[in-house]
Design brief:
The chain is an alpha+beta fold and 229 residues long. It has a single domain (31-228), classed as Jelly Rolls. It has helices at residues 2-28, 37-43, 97-101, and strands spanning 31-35, 45-46, 50-53, 57-60, 69-76, 87-95, 109-113, 117-123, 135-142, 147-152, 166-172, 177-182, 188-193, 204-209, 217-228. The radius of gyration is 20 Å and the shape is globular.
Length: 229
């Protein structure tokens, strides 16, 4: 009898803890945040580069470091998700096309990380379109100030010489899958698969990295959405 009661208590405790987790997840997901220049400047951690906001969030380099960590924003705190939870993260990136269409190199990488690994996409300027895709996947390990152990993808090029003002990135971290969509032609899509799987139990972060040390960016806005199956 005692064993039966003990097992019942343990089972009830497990159900209570499971319900608590569901309640916590439901207070955070689905996640929807329009990140304006002022919002990013106020809430996000900006690493190294000097940043100011007016119409845009202007991020300028202050050190000659390639693959420098640009910004980070916590999306989901540690302990909310499990490593096997299935989520879809959608990031819409809107950049200043005047700066991107200039002679300045302009190849930022946006994506998500768990504090150790990063899964994302590099968004290239039109000067690269003849030799590479408008966007392709990138993954790596977060160092002190830079992205390290980088693995990058490829993809079909485009004949367009017009910069895409918005790019939509979608990532399914538990499936180690991602896609980027641009406005070129009738629509351009590139797919990527990641070798490093994010551990969602460690939290989920929006991250940006700079390709070359001298690159500067004007961000119009970022829209981040997270849905759980």
């Amino acid at each position: 009898m005692f064993v039966f009661v003990l097992l019942a208590i343990i089972g009830l405790s497990a159900e209570i803890e499971a319900d608590k987790k569901v309640q916590v997840v439901q207070t955070i997901l689905p996640y929807r945040q329009l990140m304006t220049p002022k919002w990013i400047y106020k809430h996000s951690t900006i690493f190294g580069p000097h940043a100011v906001y007016t119409r845009y969030l202007k991020i300028y380099p202050t050190t000659g470091v390639k693959w420098q960590h640009g910004l980070q924003q916590q999306l989901v705190p540690p302990g909310v998700l499990s490593s096997t939870d299935s989520v879809t993260v959608t990031i819409t990136v809107a950049m200043d096309t005047v700066l991107a269409d200039s002679r300045n190199d302009h190849d930022p990488s946006f994506g998500i990380g768990d504090g150790t690994f990063f899964n994302g996409f590099t968004l290239f300027d039109k000067g690269n379109y003849g030799s590479t895709s408008p966007c392709h996947f990138i993954e790596g390990v977060r160092g002190n100030n830079t992205l390290e152990n980088i693995r990058r993808g490829s993809g079909p090029t485009t004949s367009s010489r017009q910069y895409s003002s918005t790019v939509k990135i979608q990532i399914r971290p538990t499936e180690q899958w991602g896609s980027c969509d641009t406005e070129h032609g009738e629509g351009y899509t590139n797919i990527g698969t990641y070798q490093r799987r994010l551990n969602l139990s460690k939290g989920l972060y929006l991250e940006m990295y700079r390709h070359d040390a001298y690159e500067r960016y004007n961000i119009n806005y970022l829209m981040v959405e997270i849905d759980i199956d």
